[in-house]
Specification:
By secondary structure, this protein is an all-alpha fold. It contains ten helices and no strands. The radius of gyration is 17 Å and the shape is globular. It starts with a helix and ends with a helix.
Length: about 170
């Protein structure tokens, strides 16, 4: 779980969401890791990922959406996270800011190399790679979550693998 949740940023908000039987804390606990990892993979720095994380859950609290199933709820969180990341990239502020290099002290050199290679991928490929390998979603689930066809997901995964092939040996990753 990330630090944002443990800081209690949602202190003072309603404990239970109207119209749902779920507590806000339970929903945040269930989806916080997925939202944060996806935001971090898209934004490529901790501070922006923290902002996206909070924005996603604030939108959830403000809109109080009703879901047909757990899959629908998970897809909503994925879609909103990706949309918030896109909005950040197109903001005037982001266009004028130069990012600082960040180092993550708890990863090995090999993991750091992998992260750097993954960060070189275009955003549309990075999103499907993250959802497929890190969130362990099926191709169909990814297609539904980000609103593209199954064949588009397969093509993006295939192209991303080709881009990474020089760095990652196929037998090491499978």
């Amino acid at each position: 779980m990330n630090d944002t949740l443990s800081e209690g940023w949602y202190y003072g908000l309603e404990k239970h969401l109207p119209g749902t039987g779920e507590s806000l804390e339970a929903i945040i606990a269930e989806y916080s890791d997925m939202v944060y990892r996806l935001a971090l993979s898209q934004m490529k720095n901790k501070n922006d990922a923290d902002d996206i994380f909070q924005e996603v859950f604030f939108r959830y609290i403000r809109r109080k959406p009703h879901f047909e199933s757990k899959e629908h709820q998970k897809a909503w969180f994925i879609r909103v996270t990706i949309n918030c990341c896109k909005n950040t990239f197109t903001s005037a502020w982001k266009k004028r800011v130069v990012p600082l290099e960040e180092t993550i002290p708890f990863i090995t050199d090999e993991q750091g190399d992998l992260i750097r290679e993954l960060n070189k991928l275009p955003k549309k490929y990075l999103a499907v790679v993250h959802l497929f390998y890190y969130e362990e979603m099926s191709i169909e689930e990814i297609a539904n979550a980000i609103g593209i066809s199954i064949s588009a997901v397969k093509m993006r995964l295939s192209r991303a693998r080709k881009m990474l092939k020089g760095f990652i040996k196929e037998e090491d990753y499978v």
